[in-house]
Write a structure and sequence with these properties.
The protein contains 3 helices and 31 strands. The protein has 451 residues and is mainly beta.
Length: 451
């Protein structure tokens, strides 16, 4: 008979144990030799000349004495862990292997579980990802998140942290690897480095897009900004969508909310628009301030934000309403209705300052048209940049930009783009006494746009 298939013990056929002097019976003896031949054939040759023809059954073993080991190192090999899990041991120490990576798409909020170890989850919409308690997930639990349709807010359980913070916002278009220590969570910080790369290595100032305009529904109280980006030195922020702020309220986060850094909207005022970057998630916002410099902006309402750069300016009229304008490439503004800043204004041979309806606190290049009249023939007027000092009008002095009158009390017209001082003034002078009318069509206020 063959070996017992359960125990592997060989038992020879009955009647094959002879006594002294007994005549051997050929039948059982032949059965024995045939049986021995079969079992020798079924044995595994030590020289490896023949393979197994059925599964090899080994002892379960332990981490220190594996079921399958090596003659020269019996503590290295394979053993059976609890629950039917295969284990590998090296010099008596367990060797760990990662689980197979499993991909899944998520369209909403989700709680990561212990079973998600080494999973890859792609979020196709804005969502909150809650991490189970670190102790539950255990040390070495790891997980990959892809934000592909909206920002994903990653929120550890209770007071636990991720990279030392209470939450982590993974911006749309980025991915992150999360590892659990058993007490907290950490990432590879790759997405954070990519998001901040512009800040850490770039220099220079620019504004791309973010064109200002009066809001279509509320043109005198709300300002729209197109999508775009802005940099100042090491600070950068961008917005993929259009944005709106209003002058009828103090700053609150988000589009459509109040924009003033402090106080209430004033009449005949200048409001500079500054791009903001929220430190927590690098999102875009705008604050409006009468200060012409970042240092002068009130930051009481701006906790958690970085003021990046001035991106534009708006003016209010005598009724505290936003003047309507059109903004063109390279930071050029044109008023929908020209402002008449001088009406039959006396001008003499003594240079004097003339105030315009343009931003105050900064120098701008005013877009002007003018008309001049004088009782003196061959008279002209000169309007100029205050930085040039007091000039004289006329061919024998510094010339003019309102054509010379050939007939007394007639009119001459002209136009020019003239830089102002920071008090929104230019200089005026004539070759002889006369009067002038002046229209301000708009201004150039350089913020860094090249198109």
């Amino acid at each position: 008979m063959p070996r017992n298939p359960s125990t592997g013990v060989y038992s020879k056929p009955a009647g094959t144990t002879p006594s002294v002097g007994q005549v051997i019976d050929p039948a059982p003896w032949n059965a024995l030799t045939t049986d021995l031949g079969n079992e020798i054939t079924n044995s595994l040759p030590r020289d490896g000349s023949a393979p197994m023809t059925a599964p090899l059954k080994a002892a379960s073993g332990t981490v220190s004495a594996p079921g399958i080991g090596f003659a020269t190192n019996p503590q290295t090999g394979i053993y059976l862990k609890g629950g039917g899990v295969l284990g590998f041991t090296q010099n008596g120490a367990d060797v760990g292997f990662d689980k197979a990576s499993v991909y899944a798409a998520k369209s909403g909020d989700y709680t990561a579980l212990a079973a998600d170890d080494n999973a890859v989850h792609r979020f196709t919409a804005a969502a909150t990802l809650t991490l189970s308690a670190a102790a539950t997930l255990g040390a070495n639990w790891h997980y990959r998140v892809i934000a592909d349709g909206g920002d994903v807010a990653i929120d550890p359980a209770g007071s636990e942290t991720i990279d030392g913070a209470a939450t982590l916002v993974l911006k749309n278009g980025y991915s992150v690897n999360i590892t659990c220590s058993g007490a907290a969570f950490f990432t590879d910080k790759f997405s954070a480095r990519i998001e901040s790369k512009a800040d850490s290595s770039a220099v220079g100032d620019f504004v791309v897009g973010l064109i200002l305009s009066n809001n279509g529904a509320s043109p005198t109280t709300h300002i729209d900004f197109t999508s775009g980006s802005v940099r100042s030195g090491a600070s950068f922020v961008s917005s993929a969508v259009s944005f709106t702020k209003r002058v009828t309220g103090t700053f609150a986060a988000g589009t459509g909310a109040g924009g003033l850094d402090a106080g209430a909207v004033a009449a005949n005022a200048t409001y500079f628009a500054y791009a903001l970057r929220k430190n927590a998630d690098l999102s875009f916002d705008v604050v409006l301030s009468t200060s012409a410099t970042i240092a002068g902006v009130s930051t009481t309402l701006l906790t958690g934000y970085t003021i990046v750069k001035c991106i534009g300016v708006v003016l209010t009229d005598a009724s505290s309403l936003v003047r309507q304008f059109v903004m063109y490439p390279r930071d050029e503004y044109t008023f929908v209705t020209p402002v008449k800043d001088a009406i039959n204004l006396a001008v003499t041979t003594v240079s004097s300052l003339l105030s315009l309806t343009v931003p105050t606190g900064v120098k701008v290049k005013a877009k002007l048209r003018f008309q001049f009249s004088s009782s003196s023939g061959t008279n002209s007027a000169l309007l100029s940049d205050p930085a040039q000092g007091a000039l004289g009008a006329g061919i024998l002095n510094d010339g003019g930009n309102v054509g010379a009158i050939q007939v007394a009390s007639n009119y001459a017209i002209g136009s020019a783009d003239i830089w102002t001082n920071t008090s929104k003034q230019i200089r005026q002078v004539a070759g002889a006494a006369g009067t002038i009318w002046l229209w301000t069509d708009g201004f150039h206020f350089p913020c860094g746009r090249s198109a």
